[in-house]
Design brief:
4 copies of one chain form a homotetramer. The first copy, chain A, folds into 2 domains: about 15-75, Homeodomain-like (Arc Repressor Mutant, subunit A), CATH 1.10.10; about 90-195, Tetracycline Repressor, domain 2 (Orthogonal Bundle), CATH 1.10.357.10. In chain A, about 65% of the residues lie in helices and about 0% in strands. Chain A has helices spanning about 15-35, 40-45, 50-55, 60-75, 90-105, 105-120, 125-150, 160-180, 185-195. Chain B binds a DNA duplex through helix 2 and helix 3. Chains A, B, C, D: InterPro entries: Homeodomain-like_sf, HTH-type_TetR-like_transc_reg, HTH_TetR, Tet_transcr_reg_TetR-rel_C_sf, TetR_C.
DNA sequence: TTATAATCGAGACGGTACGTCAAGTCTTCCA
DNA sequence: TGGAAGACTTGACGTACCGTCTCGATTATAA
């Protein structure tokens, strides 16, 4: 079990192979048939598992999918994620965002991530779990990189780092999820630059743009 | 008909009362039971209409809901929306965003708008229709306000207005949809200020912050 | 119009081409798709006619099919049917029954006639119309042939001719409709002989079997 | 399960209560609303059962109705039916046929039996099942009674008993199903007498009519 | 010869039922 | 006792027809 369970199934007796089979099947189906057509029944069949085994350990389809993502993210490594810190904030952010959109543009991940995102949009409980377990560490990494820049005097002293993070990633994620426009390299570059410099005209005071 | 139709139902013979009843029922049910539990069958029953009448004119549940929004937005007025322009850009944006989050926080609209947003997230065709018919005019209004400020020298000359719009609204919409945090007045104020000034420190050159 | 109509459609103005097209389409569909799958809608489409035109002139699917048969039977000739009368009753009956089963065994007529028969089984009104308009003349011909034989002393004097007719045709029709057994030449020959002679042993009094 | 099933539903797990409820509901509805208006949906609702449970075990409405009859006939007794044998064949046959038409004239059984009969008329597979499981034992009883009479010298030695059975019951069943005339006591008496004696005049050889 | 009124083709409508799919619960049997 | 299997009730799916109801566009009398 990972997220939320029903009553008190004896977690100790849980069969790990079934758990993995279910989560793998869920993620695979997500890619293959799309979110709307993924069914508990389908996952169970694909995983070679009884439906009850799913219902016993997960409260909803969204929770299964969530755990599938969790398994994936934990599978890669057990450690906390870190953003690159070359000292050049703009370059670092640009690099990270370019990697992000590459993933978002990858058809293998697009569908599943949309599924997760919209599931979160409808289920507050899931959103909380997401914030804590999946997004939490990542967001912390982002904040950390910005704090480092702030301490180096590259960011405004009174900057609210949470707002700062959202100012950079919010536009990109929103454009992706709502399909407001294409996720191109130029676009994310532009977002980073504009966010850093602000919309207002910068007084020409000799300060170089990159810093 | 508004969005997409099947083969060649004779639109001239279409019964307007049924159309309105369906869209109204759809919107009402969205509020009452939530998107996932809205069914075509339920809409038909509530509207006092045969299911076929829905299937005849709309290709999917999402399309019905989309048209329900369209009806609402057209019902309010037929004219293009305009953002306030007092000359004080920051004040104007703040006012607009405060109104926006008030609506997003209103339980009557929260559910339906999430439904629309996630439906768009999964259906590119619907996303295109949304971009053109619902979001289009609004986005144009936002761009217009920013252009006015730009011409007044309040915004950078080389600013990409599309990026600018997303930089302001993206964070807010993303926080709303992903439930990343509460939509408070302070938050949107902070977003506007930070977006205008940028993340970097502003050199103190005597230029007043507001202007 | 032929059978029963609703209120007072002006029969004089009725379009004969449509009537024929409907009845022909009905009969053809009966052969092609079977009774259960014949629909008013299908008939109308096939006949190139509006549904209302059918509903205006016929009260039910069964009535349409009935009229289709009526058209066919009237199409062949306008005169009353006559059974052969060579003087040899057994030979005549055998010949007629052999012709009958040939038709019943013909797949082109089997389906439609079953449709008519079962429709009659469920609809007393239709049964009455059938008795009067389709079966009536035929039955009269059968009775006439038997009466002729009776007058020639070949049949019992006190014989109830209605019972006699049913004794000969009843077994055959019942076997056909209920699929109790195959309709072979031997079978109908046997029915005729047995009906004429009765089940009891015939005393050998010199009377020849064929008379 | 009794007649035909689809793929491989595990019959061992089948719920007997549901089966009985379905068959009972089917038979009751047949009486109440008539065959044409009996729907799978209606049966399911009345039986307090999911539609799928019907579709899982029966291939068609006709099959359900057939099984309903089967349940009834098996419910009455498990033994093979026997016709009375007092030695007086004519009296015995008359008694049996009188009982038969009493049932056929009973509105409680008329509708359901017509339903079964017409369903058989359209579905060969069902007809085979009927011949084997419902009609079979009864027909055997009829043949047995006639054979007994034959051995007693009351029937012609070379008589085909199948033809004989049909000669007696065919006319009655045909008159019933096709509504060719009323099923009265006189009628069945007349059928029996005429069938036994034949249509031809009986030579007055001293043999008494009743034997 | 025109009007005028009905029938006609077409097909949208409110419905009912179809036969299918999946949800979530429950029961049986196996390891 | 957890799990595989799968039957169960429920409910929605999307489709086919039902029988009713307009809608112009033909007709075919009656003015």
């Amino acid at each position: 079990m990972t997220t939320r369970q029903r009553a008190t199934p004896n977690a100790a007796r849980r069969r790990e192979t079934s758990r993995r089979a279910i989560l793998t099947a869920a993620f695979d189906l997500l890619q293959e048939v799309g979110y709307a057509k993924v069914s508990i029944e389908g996952i169970a069949t694909r995983a070679g598992v009884g439906k009850q085994t799913i219902y016993r350990w997960w409260p909803s389809k969204g929770a299964v999918i969530f755990d599938a993502f969790l398994m994936l993210s934990e599978g890669s490594d057990g450690e906390a994620p870190v953003l690159p810190d070359t000292g050049d904030l703009e370059a670092d952010l640009t690099a990270v965002l370019r990697a992000t959109i590459e993933e978002l543009n990858d058809p293998r991940y697009d569908q599943p991530m949309r599924a997760l995102a919209t599931e979160i949009a409808h289920d507050p409980e899931l959103a909380a779990a997401y914030a804590e377990r999946l997004d939490g560490p990542l967001k912390e990494a982002k904040r950390r990189r910005l704090r480092s820049a702030q301490q180096a005097g590259q960011l405004a002293e009174d900057l609210d780092l949470d707002v700062a993070v959202e100012l950079i990633w919010g536009p990109v994620l929103n454009r992706w999820l709502q399909r407001t426009g294409p996720l191109t390299t130029q676009y994310v570059d532009s977002v980073v630059t504009t966010a850093l410099n602000g919309l207002r005209p910068r007084p020409t005071d000799g300060t170089p743009t990159r810093g």
